[in-house]
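Quick one from the shared queue. A colleague (R.T.) flagged UDENN domain-containing protein as missing a structural entry in our internal table.

Convert sequence to structure tokens.
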Amino acid sequence: MEMIAETSEESVVMDGGEEICPGPMTKNGMTMANRLAELMLVVGINDDTGLIPLNGRGLEKSGEDLFSNIYFEEYEPHVLAAVSATKALYFQPYFMEDPDYPPTHQPSQQSSAGKQQDLSKRGQRPRAKFAPRGPSVSPAVITHHLKKVEPGKMSASMKGADLPISEDVIRSLTTFCFPDNVKVYRECPEDSVHFLVLTDIAGNKTFATCITFYKPYIIELGSKCNLVITLDLKESSSLNSREVRGFFPQCCCVVSKAPYFYATKEILSCLISHVEHDMEEMYTFVKDFTYTMTMCPVPPAGNVIVEMSVYNLSVMLYPAECAEKPVNDLPLHLVFLCFHADDVLRILSAVLMEQRIVFVSSNYALLTIIMESFLYYILPFRWRFTYVPILSATSLELLEAPGTFMMGCHTRHLDIVALVGGLVVVNVDEGTLSVNPETCLSPRRGSITNSNIIPDVPQESANLFKKICKRVRFQLELSDVQRPFYYDIEQERMFRMKKCLQFNAEISFAFLELMVNLFRGVMPCLRVEVRQFNKQSFLESIEFTDKPFYEKVVTTDMFKMFIEDRLNERVDQWSEYEMKTRPWAKRAGGLVDSTSISVRAKHLKKPLRKQVSISTFSSSLTPKVFEVFSLPPLNDSRSYIRNSICKLNKAFDLPEIDREDILRRKGLNHVQELTQGHEPRSPGFVETAQYLKMTSVCLEEFVETVSLLAMSNDYDTIQRLFHALCMPMRPTHVDHYTMEMLYHAYVENEKQCEQLVVPEDFLKSEELLLRVSALVKTDFGNGRIVLTDKRIFFLKDGTNAFREVVKVRNITSVEKQQVDSLLYSVKTLFIDGDNGKLGGFTAVLKEERNCWAMLVEEMRAGRLVAEATKDVTAVSQAIQNVLLVDAIIRSGQDENTTHHRNLTQVAESMCYFTTFVAEGHHKLSQDTMLALQQRVDPNIGQRERKTVEVLLYTPGCESLHVSQGNIPPRLWCGMGDGKVKVFDATNWTLEKTFVQTKSTVTCLAAVGDTQVWAGSQGIFIIDTATISCNKTLTDHLDLVSDIAISKSGRHAYSSCVGGVLIKWEVQTLTALYTFSLGADRAIRSLSLNEDNQLWCGTWESIHVVSADGKYLQSFEYPATGKSKQEQLDCLLVVKGEIWAGCRRSGQIVVWDKKTAKYKDTIQVECRGVSIMLCVGDKIWVGTKDGTIFIYKPENRELWKKIKAHDDAIRAMCTAEERYVISGSGSKDGKVAIWSPLAYSMELSNPSIHGE
């Protein structure tokens, strides 16, 4: 809670930041920056205002006529008083300011009535036929007197704080306090409450709660035919013929920046009960209640309730559920008492489609509750259009306003509403929804046509939602039957509040689940790095029956803002729940990671089904536990602030180091960015593929453009394309015309593939069409040949019969030939395969021959590399190369392109795998081929490749939350740029979610099944279910180097490069104690053995300490006589020995574990040893050459030598003793999965196979 208030004996600092010097008029008052109430207005008519007919309609009438029609006229309301945090102003019968407000800590010596000052000269007005009235009070007058004044201009009024309420809001309040205008009543009506939501010109919302009550007056027809009005306090029963009793309406309106509708309703109800018992002291009560509300802070989002007391009434202010959601102080279940679940969904659909909606009801309070509830339901979508929950009788012309809006009015105006065509009319009293027929020749923009049908919410999501509504049944009376009656009003209040909170939580979660089910399909269509949303791909993934709904929704402004938030990676309840239910969506086939999909995925045989509905209602909903912060008594502002701070200190008794940690929590980074002047990200996002620049582009712009156009997502490929297309005279830029022609050629090929009609059962699963030839002559007759990523097939002309020619993996040779005939020679392409059926295939491709030869050869080479190196990403990259080569050749036919003259050379430069295979880089040794199972790329789609610094495998387990399903086995990759990326080890697909740490990730450790600890600049606690960081341990001042977990799992040990070790209690995440090896001993690695001893590896030696920090022994590098001592980069404790690898030489030093004596040095043919791992009875040694040497520890002999990386081995781990996983430096940046069980253990001669 933020409580901002500053005072001193010498000066006072008010809200506006102005320092007030002491003087006779100065009081040491304080104000809250986040107060519950901003202002209270008293509006209505009384004996001072008189009875002024509305809009002057009765001014020509005589006093007798007005007296006889006094109950039938409508009168003009007036502002009677305005009370803020710093001022109390009275406007009738003339303007006055209360000098004793706000109250101070010094008791007043004089009554406030005696100190009231006349702030405007009261002019002598002739007595008219109507009762005398004060000067007209406009909104400008009110806001003028509530604003602060310069120090030198204090003669008329006291200085006060700026009122954060605009003049637009004040103007609206006086109108909407009485939506049905002001009348005089013969009998006293019941008091009533209604709520207002007012929006100023800047779009800022202000909330108001209005309570209307009635005062009895005697209206007497005077001798001069004027009306004399007096307050009837005695309620006399005897009236003469010239007297009548009338009840005058007055309205107390509390204005707030937070939507605490029901809390302010309780406070106003208590206020009116006191006013009706003592009407002469009404303004005393108004001042007391207003000042209490303005000194009450609003609780922040979370679980802290603020409890305030006023006149023995205790009111609780509940916090917002989370920071991105507004306060919910309304009973959300009232919607379900008014509408059937099917109608609720229809209304929701109309709101999501931004229709012109009018709610009608005979209950004004219910209008605001229902409309506010629907705005709460659609979160995270945000309504940004005209929003008027209550239209007064004088403002019904707003219904004909153009554009999108949401308004409410009384049912008595239904005949007027029916005249406006295209409106969606929601009748709250009858629980129905209808659409007015269009009356104009040209329908309004945004109105519903097509037989006035609102598309239904998708059936699968709607059915799950309706099941929840049917099961829960939001009926307070049903739960009220079995409980005994409460005869204590406070008990009754608490019960109803508890049930309302329960209903609100259930409804809020049900709609959150519905919104996630409706729009989870957008996630695979987002490319955050280039701020692109593929709307076409999203719509293609929708089932036919649901398309009308989504085709309308995706065009709305709310949907665009929703996509904008996703591209900004906004973390809110929607994103958190979508991420929690993502495992279930994957198993249902409804979510596919966009990073693993080819750029031509839309040509798949079956569209990717992304819209999956999942319900976890009963398992995910747990009661929220609140803490109550009770405000101290409000005697004066100085003692109130002091007592509040004392209570806060007692409530949050934290040590100083924890207080500093609170100040470093989430949110301060954003403030620092603002203060340092960092420019925010661009608010726009790319929705279509039309992103071509009209000027020459440099490499940065070229990479961005090609990515946005979805031509390639591999940085190395885009860079090769850029250098191939560069202008000869300007090698740093690509000509815009060349870029335009390249893209048009790419799209042309895309359209040709789309137009090809292929039988549904002919294409295989996930088979992509890459190229379709012109009509050519072949060995199979006249027709077209088609290249896919899996095979080549023939389409016979005329019959459209399809016939497979050869699978790409079976192609043995591609030859360009020339066949001579009597008349001319033609260019042909000969394709041979090893499937035994083909025997060669010849196609007369003529001018297309060279292009087809390149494309087929590149696709074949990509398949060959993928199978030889077990790298599945090679196929996807080869597909991109084929498409780009085709676009280069097509666009190169234009003489104005830069690559026209050297077209063949440019096209060949993009055939990466053809060159790769020709140079023999795909050939691996026999031992490598036997053990290597697969290679995956954590750097896929990244602009720069990063080092795989550390690896961790976690087996699958059952999640603690049913909503998250079972957690699959995962491979965690700590990257050099500080990211922790995760692979699903069941199919080795890269998860879209990652965790960002600081600088680089140095270590990873699994803590039970629920957490992974990542070491960086601090220890980041990652939740394994959601792959999100929920806490950071910042006790280490230096880079964390390693983490070790005790065998029991209760404790963890961490080390840093500054030589400090910390023992942690895992359950509470608290540091138990800290000890140090010395600042000159930078700990590189940490190991905890079965004796509960910590082995700490430094650059120079290895040190052993006990779990409580007691130093035991050390292992020193043996003296060699060299001027420069070797540095130890890794250590391994195995079978009574200590192995340590040297950083800059191929040596492994071996000591005896017990005696610490040097035993041997193993020479390894490499530049340095980077990591070692014990796998079964073998030692795997990763080197800086990218080679892995496998040793037998009993005799220290080399057993195998394997290599699958082009850079240093930087990380290794095991996966349940079945696999060994290795990661390499940034030059390679890939992860290899090895199977040590693939080797036959019965080999008697462990021969070493060379590379």
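The first strand starts at residue 6 and ends at 7.
The CA atoms of residues 1059 and 1078 lie 5 Å apart.
Added to the table.
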